[in-house]
Design a protein that fits this description.
It holds the Pfam family Pkinase. By secondary structure, the protein is α+β, with helices and mostly antiparallel strands. The protein has nine helices and 13 strands. It has helices at 53-68, 108-116, 124-142, 185-198, 220-235, 241-246, 250-256, 269-278, 289-306; strands spanning 2-3, 9-12, 15-25, 29-36, 42-50, 79-83, 94-101, 149-150, 159-161, 167-169, 176-177, 180-183, 214-217. A hairpin with a 2-residue loop joins strand 2 (9-12) and strand 3. The relative contact order is 0.10.
Length: 307
Amino acid sequence: MGCFCSREIVYVNNTRYIVKERLGEGGFSTIDLVENAVTKRCYAVKRIICHSIDDQKVALQEIEYYRKLKHPNIIELIDSTFKGSADIVVNATSEVYMVLPYYRRGTLHDYLDSHSINKDYLSISEVLRIFTDICSAVKYMHELKPESLAHRDLKTANVCLTDGLSPILMDLGSVAPAKVQVCGSQDAQKLQDLAAERCSMPYRAPELFNVKSFCVVDERTDIWSLGCVFYAMCYFKSPFDAVYERGDSVALAVMSGKINFPEETPFSQEVHELILFMLNESPTERPFINDVIEKVQDLKMRLEDKV
């Protein structure tokens, strides 16, 4: 957490915010906890630094997705503004500011981290409750008209939690049209590079590590990521986090299709089968979101019958 000795002030469309602390930062963006100077309410402000026209287009597209996606389990955009030249000259930069709700509980990643210290496993009923709401948000994106969308970076760190522990999907910077027609090696390399930049490695679908020259990549990249999220909700980390932390090849581990489960586990074989259902390395055989939701509901009903 960063501490600011002098009180930095940020203006977004004439609303004055006092920066309280740094919540996170990436390559070209930062997220600060801010306080509205008048109402004293806290928000998160995402600040993206743009070094080119292309950077600007990506940032402004993210704002458009925030405005387009209206779902109780997808983060809402409170306000936004653009500062700087719309026509970037050499060595000049511009900035995009987004005001977002602040969730004091943090992310699902934080929540799982706090439970992992003493191997305090979540109950399967809590896992299914949270996961059902995440699936609801993903279904909404996948079935959006006129063009379906994929999140492309689903992971526990991109799910905020409300005070009532309801999940909220955030970070729409990686969102893209769900279906991508790849026509040739140039298209394939472009998509592969984009995935390397925007999709977190331990949650990235196998078809995005080695994009084929002639293929269609669709919304089922998100289903793979959901499988990794579900696994993490059971065992605190993605099935590929350990590989990543060791410095071994995540790409090889992902494309091998081999998923290892801990020998000692509080979760049933049915739970593992649901995870494997989503983690099908073949993108054409992987289920769609409605298939996943149906399996989750079946598992819920079977567990209720046992009680």
